[in-house]
């Protein structure tokens, strides 16, 4: 049939299914989430009117400066992300297109996903407390730590929780603040032995950190290259692999030493 058509007619006939395919793709939901910089919270202070870190059984220091945990905001697990959203996100520096399964566990409904994220946050808080007390040679029998952070799920605040506990109990170890009075932000999971793990979304989290006044950002060492992507001006990256290393880096920064690691 096509042999009897002019070239222009043939192109027009072939273009019809292509246009239909593109139209279908543009309207069909895709397995992606659109993420952007989210809220940050100072773990040394209050969040939504509630103290984030409450400690009993040991003297607590009055702290200066801030330790801000960072988040990303992503379209919900039931949201429809279409081709236009994906294309728009690829060309923006304040958004990222992420596979939905990398943001939300697959196979669960919204309620199940919320329960999963809440469970991860609770486990992260337990690990953060264990790591901080172990670093300080204290025990959970004598010191009780309560962590409260509303509307945030997942494990990525673990490092900042541990640092907040250390700052409230011991500061820099010499009577000063671990922050040196600065606004420090960061991200990273942590286990009970103080090992820091990667999280994801760090390029968006650095933007959230700088937006909220941070000048230093603690990043899992494995994600240095991601953190350098679209790094906001005026934000210094410090790579970390352990709680002990993060504390040492902040103390060195406070004292103006040249030993502060960088990405």
TrEMBL record:
The keyword Transport does not apply. GO terms for molecular function: ATP-dependent peptidase activity; serine-type endopeptidase activity. One of its GO terms (biological process) is proteolysis. Residues 1-25 form the signal peptide. InterPro entries: Lon_proteolytic (IPR008269), Ribosomal_Su5_D2-typ_SF (IPR020568), Ribsml_uS5_D2-typ_fold_subgr (IPR014721). It comes from the Bacteria. SUPFAM superfamilies: Ribosomal protein S5 domain 2-like. Keywords: Signal. The keyword Transport does not apply. Residues 154-237 form the Lon proteolytic domain. This is Lon proteolytic domain-containing protein. It comes from Streptomyces phaeofaciens.
